[in-house]
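Reviewers of the previous submission asked for a worked example of the structure-prediction workflow described in the proposal, so we include one complete record here. The input consisted solely of the amino acid sequence. No template or homolog information was supplied to the procedure at any stage.
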Amino acid sequence: MALALLVGASAPSHAHFPVTLSTAHNKAGTSPILIDGTISFAVYANFTKAKEERFVRFALEKKEELNLEYLILDQAPTNKLKNSQLPTVVVTSPSGKRINLTIKERTPFYEPFGKKNYFYLARINQSAESGIYTVRATAKSRASIVVAIGRTETRGDVLNVGMTKGECPPTIAKEETITEMRATQLIGMTEKAAEVCAAANSWMFRVGERDGEQFPVTMDYRSNRVTVSVVSGTISAVAIG
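From that input alone, the workflow returned the following structure tokens.
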């Protein structure tokens, strides 16, 4: 599975796997996707000027918890900014609901693993929807922030977006027909990663065969659906329809 991990600075806790957003992640459709949003990630976003944006996406399932924290390092220039000067962070749920991480605190804490001081600015804990969440951070001035996602203490996988095999294709608005080139990029992914990638692109997804066992599927043709074959947990073939 061609999954690339974007490594950043020391995370606010040893349990948070670090991900750094670059200037290339200035659109939701090209932003990296955290395959399991319950796993602890620390997503770093650095801004050099006002109106810059950074995006990251993550997947959750129904009955799981949505856990988000907005933090900054106790370090200049960000720690000198007023709350009104700090970047805004907005989360969009799979159903389109917007959740603002409104700054309501500036609670200090020391993180011994990275030996750094942080401030909590906002925290959210609530029941999750099933699907892909999108986080958008928008700068008001030069600043650096951290968005902590999830709580499970294990290493997480990040699905990068691109045009090569094993990368998730960039999202196309109102994509009615999936091309073979885009569909075959799922080959080599784990079944979970492929399902998350399909959801991020609003594709219908189904497993037609797993380890030689074929499953009954409807014979209707859907140009926005992929039917995959799975061998040992990895996508081995993809058909459109």
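The chain is about 5% helix and 40% strand. We consider this example representative of the routine output the project will generate in years two and three.
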